[in-house]
Amino acid sequence: MLDAIDLEDCQRVIDSVPCLVEVPSAYADLLQEEGYAAPSPMEERKYARYRFCRPAALQIIEDLPLLPRMRKIGGSYLVSISIGGAAVLFDEQLYPRERVRIWIAADALTGTVARCRRIGPKCYEVGIILDERVQVHRITRGH
């Protein structure tokens, strides 16, 4: 987490970037769920995941050398968080090892893309391993 960033800065960043994510209607219902998610038998999670959907901004802070990105920041949705990871919806496909910063109302988190799966034409679910452990209740409090 970045010590020099205050809540107003985070919200200003989120408000300043357009969100181009187009969530398919079949997936939109899942975004209404809030609370701890039960892991499926195929998942190998270290920590419990808390589902909640909130506006965010995703900033690419280090792209891949063979895939330079023209746009470095865009609107997104934070859809789940755990002590060591987060999932966001973004309108572009991201690739493992790209470095990102997630601007949310409560904080700015940095991490590394671990996976990305296509949900729709302008909707990708991006799994991110966070650089530092977070206190989930602090991130989700007040939302």
Concise overview:
The protein is mainly beta and 143 residues long. 13% of the residues lie in helices and 42% in strands.
Number of strand elements: 7
Instruction: Tell me the structural class.
Output: mainly beta
Poorly predicted ranges = none
CATH class value: Mainly Beta
Largest sheet: 6 strands, antiparallel, barrel
Q: In CATH terms, what is the fold-level topology?
A: Thrombin, subunit H
Characterization of the model:
The protein is mainly β and 143 residues long. The chain has a single domain (7-22, 48-136), classed as Thrombin, subunit H, CATH 2.40.10.220. Helices cover 13% and strands 42% of the residues. The chain is built from three helices and seven strands, in the order ααβββββββα. A six-stranded antiparallel β-barrel has the order 2-3-4-7-6-5. The model has no long low-confidence stretch (mean pLDDT 87).
List the topology elements.
Blueprint: H1 7-16, H2 25-28, E1 35-37, E2 49-62, E3 73-81, E4 85-90, E5 99-104, E6 107-120, E7 123-130, H3 136-140
Antiparallel strand pairs: 1-2, 2-3, 2-5, 3-4, 4-7, 5-6, 6-7
